[in-house]
Predict the structure.
Amino acid sequence: MFDWLKVLLLPIENPTVTNSIVAIMLAISTGIFFGRLKLGKITFGVSAVMFTGLILGHFGYRIQPGILDFIRDFGLILFVYGIGLQVGPSFFSSFKNDGLKFNILAVSTVLFGGLVTLILFKVTGLKIEDLVGIMSGSVTNTPGLGAAKNTIEEIKNSFPEKTFDDPTIGYAITYPLGVFGIIGTIILSKILLKIDPDEEMKKFRKSKIDSELPLVHKKMRVTNPEFFGKTLHQILKEFGREIVISRLKHSGSVVVKSPTLDHELRDRDVLMIVGLEKDLDEFISSLGRESKDLFIESDTDIHKKNIFVTKSSVLHKTLSQLDLFNTYDLKVTRVFRAGREILPRPSLELFYGDKLRVIGSKEAIEEVEIIIGNSEKKLLEPDFLSLFGGLLLGVILGSIPIMIPSLPVPIKLGFAAGPLIVALLISRYGGISFIHSYINNGAIYFMKDFGICLFFAAVGIHAGDGFYENFVKYNGWNWLLFGSAITFIPLITMVIVGRFIMKINYLQLVGIMSGSYTDPAALSFSTNYLDSDIPIQSYAQVYPLVTIFRIFVASLLILIFS
């Protein structure tokens, strides 16, 4: 009676499309379930899909070859594109601060891992594709494995007579080692270096006291006679710092206005100013003193509101081009973009999804809302034209052949690096034509996690086919030993160099360790283990460049030595 259900749910040697879909859904659903279980402070999250896929593959579940290739590649594309959109803004801005130092350390670790892999290739006699798979698993780098498989396919297309081992086997054998190896290194380094997370947090806050400070607003009263009769334009030009004067009230009056730059200051004028706290304190000490006047905060004549940029007609226009103040008597005091606060310079270009904080009359705000859009509902709806347009550009970029002398076939960025680079550039410049960078956080997390689940399910089930036999055939214990060298030698070197030579805060160093090995499980563990979100920041700063270098190292090793 239930034979149809057995055929549908139980493993089958020659699966139909339906059997393939069921296998993928089983791997993902069971993986997510087990990924949520806690082993001490460790949760594996979506990484557990890889392990459940291996188990299902070992017990006979299969996916049709065409479907497997599609699921694997499409999942990888979604994952790296989502990562690029998520970390793009902080990635580029970080280079003004510690980002350059962090990326030098992380990329050096990647190259060192490639060197260790090359030495093992010369010493052990293993095929380079096996060692690249071992390397990708040992550093839990999924895009590197994807790039390796794409490179092998390109070589096969040009040289059909060549045969290759499947790097997925080495990846599957050493992937658990990579996950637990990084977590173990974090635990041991904390103990051996006698790290106090609270003390590291204090040091971190102290080091950041003059950088990445939030914008604040303060009230002040003008009492210095030197500035009476001067225009705001003259005063701000002399001061030389970026400050926005959002409101002004004359002494003895209750009327609050948003002043123009040609407005002349009077004795005892009260101003509302916006900027960095240090700059505001200097400005106040030069012109007068802080004020406790409550009338300037009154909304009777002047209103404050956040407006979202959602109309295509204003995208990539600067604030000076919109000229909201002279046209509508409305002033922009702050711009919020990708979690950052930005002072509204006249040259600031507006991106889709930007949030403008404006002040002015109720009527002016309503008029500007019509021009700018302010459709929060529109922001919640995914723009599939923009999304798939960006993915298409990423695939095109990843497919461009790059000729390098002495290499047997052109190198390509592939499905891992191409979409990642496009996403980074789109997030940096706000978009290309009709393709914009804004996707709400919920959609990005869904795309990223859904993509990696598809990839892990496909790779895991494929690698699980004959996993035990392969472990015995290839002497898996030796492969684990080789993987240990690739995991621990660069990682321990990174800890020593980062902590003692580059003097990096341990909380940031842990994020760099997790980012260099592109390991979300280690990142999740470290934030719980150290009770801090700081590792997430440094993880995001190094992840994009590390991913690109992991892809290139994997591809070049196969191209040069296969």
